[in-house]
Write a structure and sequence with these properties.
Length: 197
């Protein structure tokens, strides 16, 4: 899900689709939100970032009122982020030497557009750094990544109660797909279906 209230006026979070990693992003990109004297550095998660990355994921789960990943899921999160090729792309946002936010993306594919879809799974900023331009800088970085990867569109999910995120996205021209429904089959049901149950 997406949580990114970080434009000076509001903030957001994002969701799922079939994973298909894209080509590597630039190693590090500075972004300077309006009113911030120090640029934010946005970089891919790398070896050595495991602890801060997981702490950001935990903080995001707490914000979303969801359970954080357990021990085995934490191992998979790190393994899949650092594998070659990675199963998803994870990025950290850093200011003045402190990692303050993260995002997770992956590529799906549109058969009708015949182009990849840039899917935003998570975008999150520590609470004390919200409403200061950090989320906006991260989102702008991801938009440029989608263009760089020649994507036909960018998609994500937002929880209905997260009004700040909804305003944040709609002010950037995002359109709610009200005519589409989201369906999910969890791991247990997948096993039952695969077993013919």
């Amino acid at each position: 899900m997406s949580e990114v209230p970080s434009s000076p006026k509001d903030s957001p979070s994002a969701g799922p689709s079939s994973p298909a990693p894209g080509s590597p992003s630039p190693e590090e990109t500075p972004a300077s939100p309006a009113g911030l004297p120090t640029p934010i550095r946005i970089r891919p998660v790398a070896e050595g970032d495991e602890e801060i990355f997981l702490s950001l994921v935990d903080a995001h789960a707490d914000f979303e009122k969801m359970d954080p990943p357990g021990p085995e899921a934490r191992e998979r999160l790190i393994r899949d982020a650092l594998s070659d090729p990675p199963r998803y792309r994870a990025y950290l946002a850093t200011i003045e030497g402190r990692d303050v936010g993260y995002c997770i993306t992956y590529l799906a594919y549109s058969s009708f557009l015949a182009r990849p879809t840039f899917f935003l799974e998570d975008i999150f900023v520590f609470s004390e750094y919200r409403s200061r331009g950090f989320g906006g800088a991260m989102f702008a970085y991801l938009v440029k990544e989608a263009v760089r990867l020649e994507c036909g569109r960018m998609e994500w999910m937002v929880q209905e109660w997260n009004e700040g995120a909804i305003r944040f996205y709609e002010r950037r021209g995002a359109v709610e797909l009200a005519e589409w429904r989201t369906y999910r089959i969890d791991q247990d049901q997948l096993a039952r279906l695969a077993g013919g149950a």
